[in-house]
Each structure stands twice: as structure tokens, then as C-alpha cells.
């Protein structure tokens, strides 16, 4: 069986897991390929589909950030933010706001970066996330 046939037979969750593994190994372009294939598959991601979708969006945003493709990073981090809102996931909201703040900072849009950093700090305080609070105040 060729690699392309093997990949074609993978379900969305398996593709996402492989994409995350590749990103952890600093193979961002390959990881992005798998993560985007997972998004394009019209297969259920399991009983926790929105949580899986949020993880994929976050990982894609981070991978594009590492590659310095900030417009794509921002796009996926915004998707992650919207998914966290749907899930009412306060920790996910904090993470997404932090990622968006970092991306806006890299783009030189300091007003937008500040706005999202403040949202991240507020949520971190509400969640008693002392590490994030200390880092954000530094």
C-alpha cells in the first residue's frame, strides 16, 4: 500500500494525531498537511468533536506561527477562540486570547495584541492560573 493510500484511509482523528506528533517533532509543514487533511475529512472526530476541532485549530495556529505565516496563524487562532466560546471553555478562551495576542504582536498590531492580552489576563485571574498571571504581568 502506498503512503498516499494509507493516508487516504486514515480517519480525521488519526490524521489530527499524526499532525500533532509531527508538529511536536518540529516538522511543521508535514504536521500542517495532516492537520488540514483532518479538517477536510467529513468524518466525525468522536464524541468530543468540538474539543478535537479546537485542538486542531490551536495546533495549526501554532504551526503557522512557528513558520512565521502570521495571517494563517491568526486565522486558526480565531477559529480556536470561536470554538472555545461554543464550548464555554474558559481555559480554552484564555489560551486562544494569548495566542492571538502573540500573533498580533508579531504582526506589529500592538493595540489588538494588548486587547487580547488583557482578555487573557482577566481569564487567567478568574481561573486562578498563577503561572499565566505572573508571565502576563512580567
UniProtKB/TrEMBL annotation:
Keyword Repeat carried by entry: yes
InterPro entries in alphabetical order: GPSM (IPR052386), TPR-like_helical_dom_sf (IPR011990), TPR_rpt (IPR019734)
UniProt superkingdom: Eukaryota
GO cellular component: cell cortex
Xref: SUPFAM superfamilies: TPR-like (SSF48452)
SMART domains associated with the record: TPR
Listed GO biological process terms: establishment of mitotic spindle orientation
GO molecular function terms attached to this record: G-protein alpha-subunit binding; GDP-dissociation inhibitor activity
Subcellular location field: Cytoplasm
Keyword annotations: Cytoplasm, Repeat
Protein name as it appears in the record: MalT-like TPR region domain-containing protein
Native source organism of the sequence: Acanthocheilonema viteae (Filarial nematode worm)
